Amino acid sequence: MKYKVTPTQKERLLRDNDFIVSKTDTKGIITYCNRIFIDYSGYSEEELLGTQHNIIRHPDMPRAVFKLLWDTIAEKKEIFAYVKNMSKDGGFYWVFANITASMDQSEKILGYHSVRRKPKTAAVKICEGIYKEMCSIEQRVGAKDGMKASTDYLLGVLAKERISYEKFVLSI
Ligand SMILES: Cc1cc2nc3c(=O)[nH]c(=O)nc-3n(C[C@H](O)[C@H](O)[C@H](O)COP(=O)(O)O)c2cc1C
Predict the structure, then answer these.
(1) Helix, strand, or coil here: 50?
(2) Digits of tens for pLDDT over the chain (172 positions)?
(3) C-beta of 33 in contact with ligand 1 (< 6 A)
């Protein structure tokens, strides 16, 4: 089910000991979420289970970040990312997310697992600026080439700092 949610400026701040957990199948359909996930999302457990994880996607998030996320976890590598999520009431909450693949004994991917914690305020500010530019590139360039153009922008930022995405996201 798709909900029509209008973003608002209401921000929710995670507390130090909040760990927001969810699990998905291989397609990103939510199969498990903890109480804190439910609380921040504003949806009920019934609304969340069986639903695509993009139910909490915020329009301020660049598409290229999610492509990087999916490309990385599909290769069975873990990814860390700062993500702005949207609650059912349109409010938002920034998280520092870690996402990994869950595998069986033969290393076949069974699904994915994510733990999110309170992000550093300074890191959120940095990502906010980068994501804003990426979203505006995606809008300007359009659906077909926008993702590549905004990925190139991100790679350019990293190249200027002479740092990999992985090191960057852990260092800010
Ligand atoms: C384990 C896991 C956790 C995810 N967590 C989030 C999340 O917290 N917020 C989010 O917007 N997308 C999350 N995603 C990515 C979504 O599946 C989706 O790719 C993203 O919201 C972009 O949606 P769209 O492709 O419909 O634009 C997660 C994916 C996986 C596999």
Answers:
(1) coil
(2) 567 899 999 999 999 999 999 999 999 999 999 999 999 999 999 999 999 999 999 999 999 999 999 999 999 999 999 999 999 999 999 999 999 999 999 999 999 999 999 999 999 999 999 999 999 999 999 988 999 999 999 999 999 999 999 999 999 9
(3) no
This prediction's pTM: 0.96
Q: How far is the CA of 81 from the centre of ligand 1 (A)?
A: 11
Contacts of 140 (CB under 8 A, 6+ apart): 146
Single out the residue of 97, 124, 100, 95 nearest to residue 112, CA to CA.
Answer: 100
Residue to probe by mutation, ligand 1, list 53, 84, 100, 112, most atoms within 8 Å of CB: 53
Match domain 20-119 to its CATH number in 3.20.20.70, 3.50.30.50, 3.40.190.10, 3.30.450.20.
Answer: 3.30.450.20
